[in-house]
Amino acid sequence: MPALVLLGAQWGDEGKGKATDLLGGSVDYVVRYQGGNNAGHTVVVGDQKYALHLLPSGILSPGCTPVIGNGVVVDPSVLLAELSGLNERGVDTSKLLISGNAHIITPYNVTVDKVTERFLGKRKIGTTGRGIGPTYADKINRVGIRVQDLYDESILQQKVEAALDVKNQMLTKLYNRRAIAADQVVEELLGYAGQLAPYVADTVLVLNEALEQDKVVLFEGGQGTLLDIDHGTYPFVTSSNPTAGGACTGSGVGPTKISRVIGILKAYTTRVGAGPFPTELFDEDGEALRRIGGERGVTTGRDRRCGWFDAVIARYATRVNGLTDFFLTKLDVLTGWEQIPVCVAYEIDGRRVEELPYSQTDFHHAKPVYETLPGWSEDITKAKSFSDLPKNAQNYVKALEEMSGAPISAIGVGPGRDETIEINSFL
Ligand code: GDP
Ligand code: IMO
Ligand code: MG
């Protein structure tokens, strides 16, 4: 059995953590391939709720090896705090593997994230302030610090000095901030080296050998398709590739090994931070979706912007990721609406447009064209099979499937592991 990718089909927070955890018991490895602790993945197991930021959701399945791939950016203090938090709750984290090539979010990257956002003022992206963008910028500028650098003090010192040479000019002269001392950064980073050492591995080799031995590898995306640096609503995006191709570059596993790409799709739409969002609601329906869906950020605690389902986006996600399946989440949240509008196309400057426009200007002008589907009032949280759903809920799912371009193979009807309707097996 080869590799599977599970990723967000919208703007993040689709329920990737729950879906990954659900499969975690049946796979050998769960791999994060991009992003960092900007992610907040919620997993509910029985009466226990876990909020994971950097650790792959497979960490909660005892038989599974969690892997932080080379494409991830790692804040060591956050990682160690997350590990000890789980250990205190009795979760064994000893199997974790971290790529030596993953880049480190240094304290100065976090500072730069915060000051640049402040400097942008009302043009800000609304980042999570976790240093994600500046760390990827350093990676691309070839002045990044990697996990392996923690194990060569002289190299680490040289690299931190090189990175700070430029940043301190910017911080002091442009942003009017104090310079950051390289020695202090090096000392802090070296302080993490010993604790991280047992986990550091050649994860490219480990994953490829595992695949040769027919082990099952699941890639868990952070963020979502529309937050992708290449394919998302640039510049209102994150600084990595959550889309399917990112699983290859972010792990060192070739595309020929990937047999299934599952898009996690919320039955409505949410977004955190700034940027265009055609189906966003500013009325009591939006408020109700936020309240019933518990739409508050796991990482930053910000209220999520809420709106109706957008089929244009779902079709786009199918295309750019080569999706084989969807996992539709949070269908239960829509219970109680008499009518549910679904965006089937956009109107842009008087024209009907069926596909996501590549032009940022057009997308900013896109107005949703809605079709309205009949709702249902019956509680669906106990449904175990598709036929247990009320007819109108079945029709809503079928309509979404038809509009979105890939089969819906599972449906979430509640946050718990067992609150899932499986239609086609993923494994
Ligand atoms: P992620 O970032 O994609 O992992 O998603 P988040 O954890 O940020 O947000 C999804 C939220 O929805 C979490 O609170 C989940 O526990 C919850 N959730 C996931 N699937 C379902 C579902 O089918 N129904 C309901 N009601 N909640 C769900
Ligand atoms: P999960 O994995 C939703 C958003 C931020 C901001 C933009 C850039 O839980 O789905 P960044 O800090 O990444 O530079 O911020 O991306 N963002 C997310 N939105 N879910 C996430 O992760 C997100 N991670 C980043 O709000 O708009
Ligand atoms: Mg989240």
Description:
The structure is a single chain. By secondary structure, the protein is an alpha/beta fold. It has 2 domains: 310 residues, Adenylosuccinate Synthetase, subunit A, domain 3 (Adenylosuccinate Synthetase, Chain A, domain 3, Alpha-Beta Complex); 96 residues, Adenylosuccinate Synthetase, subunit A, domain 2, CATH 1.10.300. The protein has 12 helices and 20 strands. Strands 9-7-5-2-10-1-11-15-19-20 form a 10-stranded mixed beta sheet, sandwiched between helices. Strands 14, 16, 17 and 18 form a 4-stranded mixed beta sheet that branches. The chain is globular and about 65 Å long. The protein binds guanosine-5'-diphosphate, 6-O-phosphoryl inosine monophosphate and magnesium ion (MG). The site of 6-O-phosphoryl inosine monophosphate has 23 residues, from helix 4. Its EC number is 6.3.4.4.
Overall number of structural domains: 2
Ligand names: guanosine-5'-diphosphate, 6-O-phosphoryl inosine monophosphate, magnesium ion
Average predicted local confidence, pLDDT? 97
Low-confidence stretches at least 5 residues in length (pLDDT < 50)?
Answer: none
**Global morphology:** globular
In CATH terms, what is the architecture of the largest domain?
Answer: Alpha-Beta Complex
CATH superfamily of the largest domain: Adenylosuccinate Synthetase, subunit A, domain 3
Q: Could you please say which CATH topology of the largest domain applies here?
A: Adenylosuccinate Synthetase, Chain A, domain 3
**What's the helical proportion of residues?**
25-40%
The secondary structure category is: alpha/beta
In angstroms, what is the radius of gyration?
22 Å
